[in-house]
Amino acid sequence: MFHPSRLLVRLIGPLAVLFAFTTAATTATAAPSRLATLDWTIAETLIALDQPPVAAAQVDAYHAWVREPAMPSSVSDLGLRTQPNLELLASIDPDRILISPMFANLVPRLERIAPVDTLALYSPGRDTWDELCELTRSVAAMIDRPQAATRLIEATQAELSDLKSRLNDDAPPLLIVQFMDARHVRVFGENGLYQAVLERLGLTNAWTGKTNAWGFSLVPLEALVGIDARLVVVKPYPAGVRASLADSGLWQEVVRRQGAPLILEPVWSFGALPSAQRFANLLVTAMENTDAR
User: What residue stretch is flagged as signal peptide (predicted)?
Assistant: First the structure.
């Protein structure tokens, strides 16, 4: 005798297999949601895309050097970027680990914990702004949020366009530096984040000397003396430097020739679009406040 229940069992069997296969395939291709990173540029991009990492390195130093976007309190601190706490990272069990090429020597150890993706930025011969946008899209693709990348890119471009409209047409060339000690500075030029922002703001960089792959040269203070430009100093200052500058005749000569510098709060000079926005806002606001005096 034919029993309807037997037909039901026969149907359910293949359907169950199909359902299990579909579920497994969906799980296998789902975008990773628990990402760890040692790189602050990737970290700030993830935060700006509304997908903060579950773990990052040197969180306190990130707050000192990058500042914004702020690292959420939920992010675990892995310790030094070059010597992360691998036991802690393993216990967190991230889906993937994102790094930049400077941490390539750690890949063999990191791969024992989770798959590792390396994202490059500031490549020689590449247009910096194009690379910033490419990095944003690459990170967004990893978390399956391509629309978030589009929004971040468009918002950054719109903000810089608005900031550009606030500047005077006769703005002087700028000389952008960051102190390494009381006698040496990084001076920023071609290939760097600051240069990419200056170009979009219609501003001129007074430094035409050679720069490294990260867009800066390390020079003594006396290299700044003969340059006719408005000086911009980006914090933070190394310990003891501000006190030393107060007694430095060389620094006083730089200030005498160029005027009091514009002092900007910290910006990650090796950052991506979030740092580009921060630098542009701080710079334009400082220029407006100085011009209004």
Answer: 1-30
pLDDT band at 31 (very low <50, low <70, confident <90, very high): low
168-291 maps to which CATH number? Answer: 3.40.50.1980
- CATH T-level assignment (fold) for domain 35-159: Rossmann fold (3.40.50)
CA distances from 60 to 19, 82, 181 (A): 46, 15, 21
Q: What is the pTM of this model?
A: 0.86
Residues in the chain: 293
Mean pLDDT of the chain: 88
230 pLDDT above the threshold of 60:
yes
CA distance 15 to 17: 5
Residue of 66, 22, 4 lying closest to 40 (CA atoms): 66
Phi, psi of 186 (to 5 degrees): -85, 130
Is 22 in a helix, a strand, or coil?
helix
Answer yes or no: is pLDDT of 19 > 60: no
